[in-house]
Every structure is written in C-alpha cells, then in structure tokens.
Amino acid sequence: MTRRLTIRIALLAALALSAPLAAQDRLAADLAKYQHEVDPVHKARELAKLGDEQVELARKQSKAGDSEASLHTLEQYRDEVSETVAALKGTGVNAERKPAGFKELQISLRETVRHIDDLILTLNVDQRPFFRVVRNDLSTKHNELIDALFPLRTDHNAPKSDP
User: Fewer CB within 10 Å, N side or C side of the chain?
Assistant: First the structure.
C-alpha cells in the first residue's frame, strides 16, 4: 500500500514539474518560429502571440526573486518589437489600407504594456525605473503603430482661422 502511495506521489510530482517545463518548451518553440520567420507580417503575428508568454515568464521570474532575469526577458521582448516594427515599416506598405501585421502587433502591445504596468507595481521601488524604461520603449513602439494605422490628415478644405 505504501509503495503505491509513493509511486502516486512521485508521479504527481513529476506532472507538477513538467507543466512549467512544457510552458517553457512552448515559449522556446514559439520564439524559434518567430526568429525563423522572414515575412514581416507573419513575424508581427508571431510576436503578437509571444508577448503574453514573455511577460508571464518575466512575472514568474520576478516572483521567484530573479529581477535581473525578469528584466532581461522584457528587454529581449522590447528588442524583438523594435526589430519587427522596423521591418513592417520597411515594407513600405500603407498600414491604413493593409493593416495586416500592424494591427495584430498594436493590439498585443497595448495589452502587454498594461501587463507590464501590473508587474511594475509588484516590484520593489528601487527596481521599478529599470522596468519603466522598457515599458516606455514599448509604449513608444505602440504609438508608432497607432500613427501608421491612423495617420493624421490635414483637411485642405477647412476654413483657415485669422489671427
């Protein structure tokens, strides 16, 4: 009877430990897929999926007391976003007319910045400025995508105001 119990406990422990490993394997596979993608639109779509996973990993690292690894994870994500936004802009596609890639990444960034804000609130006060730098960089890229999707229009028919 005790042997069965020991085997069950060992089995449950193995299953409990394999769940985080499976999540890490999935993140690694998704990251590899993103890195091997050459089309900027597909790359942006892959990155839109990765954002939540990377922020979740950063949150877990921070909760485990490894703020350096957490910050590094977010910095890696920021660099991926910068690279992808530059690639999307480099295509010369009018994002307003063909929003594929731009739109998915913009929506994902909006949510990711919100999750990073939540993460920052859980940190010690002395660690927050480093994470805010990454958050602000991502917010800037988000705004660039908004500007590409919704460019300012000047109405040439509007009456001019006299000073």
Answer: C
pLDDT tens digits for range 18-71: 445 566 788 888 888 888 899 999 999 999 989 999 999 999 999 999 999 999
* Tokens, residue 152: 């300012």
Cα–Cα distance for residue pair 123/129, rounded to 1 Å:
10
> What does pTM read for this prediction?
0.79
* Cβ atoms of 70 and 63 closer than 8 Å: no
Residue-wise DSSP of 78-91: HHHHHHHHHHHHHT
If one counts every other C-beta atom within 10 angstroms of the C-beta of residue 163, the result is 3
**Contact at 8 Å (CB) between 40 and 88?**
yes
